[in-house]
Design brief:
The protein is an all-alpha fold. The chain has helices spanning 2-29, 36-66, 70-95, 99-113, 116-141, 146-150, 153-171, 178-206, 228-236, 245-255, 263-315. The protein has a domain at 2-206.
């Protein structure tokens, strides 16, 4: 769970800091630094609100556990988190290059209107969105124990790494290849989303909510058990696993690894990547076509303008 928590906090905190950094940098260029204190006021309020959301969410999860209905919440969180992570991947594929321009446009409108409240609200909502997503993802990877994820070393290291990278980007002349960063983290998040989807399907099958055409397509638990408990069980019956169960539990938590997956889990895992990659390429293709059409239209307008000027010259 530590690596998952690291990736989540690193990604979410960095995105929030990037947007806040763009806001404060743009305000400095506009010579409007007096708004900075209101930006950080919004950030502080969002952090406090996010902790409140985490507390509220934990109370709700505890209530479901008391009613012996925690498996419903657990499955729901897994599936919804998979959808949210997928949406994040799509957002990074579509909008990561345009984030600075969009943020500057919003800030320019707020400064022009002279709205201090608007600046606070904008910063607050930007950071709060990342905070709420973090809480939800922590609930998914910790199976409902959000405090465990928040207190993990991975979460703390993720925050520290994000702060350091954000400082490097905005305070030094070192060029950080953000395109590579978004590509790598996007791939890891995609793997995590696929893993949560598969775990959700497996949990539904375990609880008998859905059936299976083949419950165990193969079984490689003797090679790589998916949990140290499985490893200990194998050793009790005289079988020494080839790879430690510690690696198995990491792969299960991070990528949805299963030593004996069902037919539906395999289809869902492969299908997820096939559909998502096709959709990303499809959307990029459409965007490329739109750009070409806009360029062609601009070229035609330019030709028409030139032709009109020639006709005017001839008339003269």
């Amino acid at each position: 769970m530590d690596f998952q928590a690291f990736l989540i906090t690193f990604r979410e905190v960095l995105e929030a800091l990037m947007i806040v950094g763009i806001i404060t940098t743009y305000l400095r260029k506009m010579d409007q630094q007096q708004y900075n204190k209101w930006v950080w006021t919004g950030v502080a309020g969002a952090v406090i609100s996010s902790l409140g959301v985490a507390l509220l969410f934990q109370v709700v999860l505890t209530g479901f556990a008391a009613m012996s209905s925690q498996h419903y919440m657990r499955i729901s969180i897994m599936l919804i988190s998979s959808v949210l992570l997928t949406q994040m991947v799509l957002w990074m594929a579509d909008s990561s290059k345009e984030i600075a321009g969009k943020t500057q446009d919003k800030i320019n409108k707020i400064v022009t209107a002279g709205s201090v409240l608007g600046m606070v609200v904008h910063a607050y909502l930007v950071v709060l969105r990342e905070g709420v997503e973090t809480v939800f993802f922590f609930a998914a990877i910790s199976h409902g124990d959000i405090s465990q994820a928040i207190q993990s070393k991975g979460a703390l290291l993720g925050v520290i790494a994000a702060c350091v990278l954000a400082w490097v980007i905005f305070r030094t002349t070192v060029r950080v290849p953000l395109k590579t960063f978004f590509t790598v983290t996007g791939f890891l998040i995609m793997m995590m989303a696929a893993g949560l989807l598969v775990q959700g399907i497996g949990a539904m099958q375990d609880y008998g909510f859905i059936g299976s055409l083949n419950k165990h397509v193969y079984d490689i638990s003797t090679i790589l058990p998916e949990h140290p408990i499985d490893e200990a069980h194998l050793r009790r019956i005289g079988i020494e696993p080839l790879i430690s169960g510690q690696i198995g539990i990491f792969l299960m938590a991070m990528f949805g690894y299963s030593s004996s997956p069902s037919f539906e889990e395999i289809v869902a895992y492969i299908g997820y990547f096939a559909v998502l990659i096709w959709w990303i390429r499809f959307r990029k293709g459409n965007k490329g076509q739109e750009k070409n059409e806009i360029a062609a239209a601009a070229s035609e307008n330019k030709k028409d303008s030139v032709s009109l000027q020639e006709k005017v010259q001839i008339a003269k």
